[in-house]
């Protein structure tokens, strides 16, 4: 067995597989699936409901496992290296504005933790820049994307062995395998039978990203939220921790970003286009944060934010979905369609890309059309427990950030940082798939659970999967208990 993914294998390395793949959605999951399936020799078509690729948004955390596959895409790798945050700093405040941890050079901190600063466990990235990078790659490849195509239903046909979907205007599309990458609320839920209820966590986030020139309106704000290091040329993340809230700012070349976590208000919605104006934030932000109001400088930063920029994003919770595929394995969900993450988990984008890389590889290993259902099952076994664990860490992180215990922060500044465990970032979804596919399929055929098989775990070592629910997690939080992660090495 050749282990692919260790060396660079650009487009053209893999012979044609003859498999027709239909991808629905051009988020990170769909775009990665499209280019990786093309590289692995599959024929790819893409559908998207919007009129173009939506490059809105502010930032997200891109974990190392989601960027390893760039080695196969030299132009993307070059661009990623140029837009990435090098030489970043991090500084911690109380929400009231009192500094608690001086600016630290992230590279130094990585070295102190025994890590290589050249390959950090992940970095914050600007969504618009990452998307533009993907769009250019898709254009270079000449990928066929049919825009303005809103999918309303999915189907599969056992006799022909095809999967398919139907668009709003009644057009039918078919392929050997359909990848539903249409995000939270995927229209494939009905066929897959994995529908889970979305419930309000009671929390929401104000989030804004805008051109840094807007800070010229208030010179003191501009001076305070300056970059740092030699000639003030290095980006800095400032985190704010307070009772029942946290915030974050990022100052980088050209762009200013801020985020504040708060109780959901009437205007919160799970929608990246749901904007409100600065005054509403200023009117609401001091409610429920105890005797000390928010830092005046943070308020002035908010006041500098241009109109129609602040997204009031409601955080909805969903239990892990029991199933990600249609009964005969011809429709398979990836990314947010299969599992939703809270933004504070730092894992939504990463897991979406990992899914896409894993699935493209499993389909390559399937080799023929009749083996697709087996490959889809193998892919889900590789992904399910890892994802459920990452979701749980996300809740645990949210709790950690919201309820800072200052007596502990004093002794251990790491408590003020979200958990980003080794089992999360050490993974390479492509190499892992090639190393373990045969073993995984064998165990699957014998009916051995994935976490009891001899496949090396890509989740906390020693963990045994047990279904869990948001309700249980919420009970722990309400009772002031740390989230019960379960057995195994979660660090
Ligand atoms: C506009 C936008 C801005 C975002 N900004 C941020 C951010 O700032 N920070 C952050 O952490 N996360 C952000 N996210 C979420 C983040 O991109 C995802 O959580 C993560 O990357 C997983 O991506 P995904 O590809 O699974 O889903 P998504 O990124 O949600 O992509 C789903 C795609 O499917 C398309 N689609 C949906 N329904 C249909 C349908 N019925 N038919 C056809 N196409 C359909 C959508 O238009 C979209 O292009 C944003 C998402 C969007 C869509
Ligand atoms: C999201 O918000 C925008 C702007 O308010 C609105 O036009 C759009 O219909 C909303 N989308 C959904 C799915 O509610
Ligand atoms: C936020 O919600 C929590 C839990 O419901 C509540 O205890 C707290 O008082 C709320 N804060 C505000 C500002 O309403």
UniProtKB/TrEMBL annotation:
One MF annotation (Gene Ontology) recorded for this entry: monooxygenase activity
Residue spans crossing the bilayer: none
Keywords: FAD, Flavoprotein, Monooxygenase, Oxidoreductase
Record flagged with keyword Oxidoreductase: yes
The keyword Flavoprotein is assigned to this record: yes
Residue stretches making up the FAD-binding domain: 20-364
Xref: Pfam families: FAD_binding_3
InterPro entries in UniProt: FAD-bd, FAD-dep_Monooxygenase_BioMet, FAD/NAD-bd_sf
Cofactors, names only: FAD
Family to which this protein belongs: Belongs to the paxM FAD-dependent monooxygenase family.
Name the UniProt record assigns to this protein: FAD-binding domain-containing protein
Organism: Meristemomyces frigidus
